[in-house]
Design goal:
The chain is built from 16 helices and 14 strands. By secondary structure, the protein is of the alpha/beta class.
Length: about 475
């Protein structure tokens, strides 16, 4: 015997926990300690991974044990059985037959009668394969449960998006977290006002607004280590601006893993997502969300001069249809600033050489606006009628759908009132137990609460749409001279 350590390794996953007390960490520790003492192993140290899958070898204490082994501190590793070491037959076999021997480490699996100091380990390969089968079977069952839950409209994510919190009565129901929701609304408002993700992130950091990670940490959530929680990142802002959940919809199957062994998340195409509408209160209106997505589709690349040209992202080549790019030189006058065809700049054979000065383009646009203003001025009533008709046409479908949902929700709210009254009568008469009454009444109350929130949000949505239609007339009432002065 040497002064090197005897590592007693214990592991328990959620699936193993369901098999009973025999696999518990306490049971494993007692069994391994008795075995080590009775067989003369000294300098014992426990390495424990509680709640970790056997297919994942990046377990904290397993990696600590590997580092100690690589530093020459371990002579023997003992586990309850082969499945405690791992359930991936390839990696488990590699550790037992290649890595452990390279470092002169003896491995023992007590219940499976495996000891690398002996040569009678022929059945070890088959046991590792069966352990792998068990992990594969558990993965299939878990995937089936997740798929069923996702198809039912219940959210699959374990953490709610920033701006929401789980209901205390039902963890599958999301409620608006007003403190965080105000920040989300501010981000969308700043984007509509023309600020980019980096500018928004800098403004939030300057105002000492807690980042989503910092906010979650303050609420008691577990957050990853070595993450800066005091500074907003542009990527966090971009993620918030693109989340459909802020419309009140649940989005499932956004990602997947290739297999039960590979845990890397892969994004699915958007057409494969399952979107369930109006499952929780909305934070952002459909109009604002759609407007932000359109603005971000034409997002502009920051210029070194920090001055964004008013035509950036809006001018396209008449020949090839590709965007035209701004060209400016600090050593030349501003009148030389121009937009040129990007296709020709990359390959002269794909398009012809042409450009337009921004000062000329600005003059052309102003002339066209003046012409339009004259038409509006001369045919004001007809123009207002056409614009209003067009706006009504584009908004009518959304409003019609919202009104149908309101009618359906209000009808269900009335039905729930009747059901609750009937439920109360059945409880008083003794037809149902108090426990059953409590469960059903709570379920009805939660559903009714969610429906009322949906009606409230859709009512606000309809009012906003109607206000937009009325707002169309206001600018057209302004005298034409005022518009010309603005230009």
């Amino acid at each position: 015997m040497t002064d090197k350590k005897t590592a007693l390794y214990c592991r328990l996953s959620n699936d193993d926990d369901l098999q009973g007390e025999s696999n518990s960490i306490t049971n494993q520790k007692t069994m391994l300690m008795d075995y080590a003492k009775s067989n003369g192993f000294r300098n014992i140290e426990f390495y424990v991974d509680d709640g970790w899958s056997g297919t994942n070898f990046n377990r904290p204490d397993f990696q600590r044990m590997v580092r100690d082994m690589e530093n020459g501190c371990i002579s023997t590793i003992i586990t309850k059985d082969l499945s405690r070491l791992g359930r991936d037959y390839l990696t488990t076999g590699q550790y037992i037959e290649m890595i452990f021997p390279d470092f002169g480490v003896r491995y023992i699996a007590v219940n499976d009668n495996v000891d690398t100091a002996r040569e009678e380990n022929e059945m070890m390969v088959f046991r590792n394969v069966f352990n792998d089968f068990f992990a594969r079977d558990c993965s299939k069952k878990v995937r089936a449960v997740i798929k069923s839950k996702g198809k039912s409209g219940k959210p699959l994510t374990t953490k709610t998006p920033y701006g929401y919190k789980k209901s205390e009565q039902d963890k599958n129901v999301w409620e608006v977290d007003e403190e965080a929701a105000e920040v989300v609304r501010r981000i969308f408002k700043m984007c509509i006002e023309g600020y980019g993700p980096t500018q928004i992130a800098n403004a939030l950091t300057k105002d000492n607004v807690p980042t989503p990670t910092a906010y979650q940490s303050a609420k008691g959530w577990t957050v990853p280590e070595n993450i800066k929680i005091n500074r907003w990142a542009a990527r966090s802002v971009s993620d918030i601006l693109s989340r459909i959940e802020y419309l009140g919809h649940t989005v499932n199957f956004r990602t997947h893993t290739r297999s039960y062994k590979c845990k890397k998340r892969i994004y699915n195409p958007q057409e494969e997502w399952e979107i369930f509408e109006n499952t929780h209160p909305a934070i952002i209106s459909q109009h604002d969300f759609d407007l932000v997505q359109k603005l971000r589709e034409r997002r502009k690349r920051p210029q070194k001069s920090k001055e964004v040209n008013i035509f950036s992202g809006m001018v396209y080549c008449a020949d090839c249809g590709k965007p035209m790019y701004l060209c400016r030189n600090s050593s030349k006058p501003k009148s030389d600033e121009h937009l040129k065809c990007g296709t020709y700049a990359a390959d002269s054979s794909e398009c012809s050489s042409h450009y337009i000065r921004t000062c000329v383009l600005k003059e052309l646009v102003i002339n066209e606006i003046n012409k339009l203003l004259m038409i509006v001025h001369e045919n004001r009533d007809n123009f207002i009628s056409k614009v209003t008709e067009k706006a009504n046409e584009s908004h009518s479908n959304d409003v019609k759908t919202a009104k149908k949902t309101i009618v359906k929700s209000e009808k269900r709210i009335a039905e729930l009132d009747k059901l609750f009254a009937k439920l109360y009568e059945d409880n008083v008469s003794g037809k149902i137990s108090d426990e059953r009454f409590e469960v059903l009444s709570q379920s009805y109350e939660n559903e009714q609460k969610q429906l009322k929130a949906t009606v409230s949000e859709l009512t606000k949505f309809i009012e906003a749409k109607e206000q937009q239609n009325s707002d169309i007339r206001e600018p057209l009432k302004t005298p034409i001279q005022t518009f010309q002065n603005m230009i």
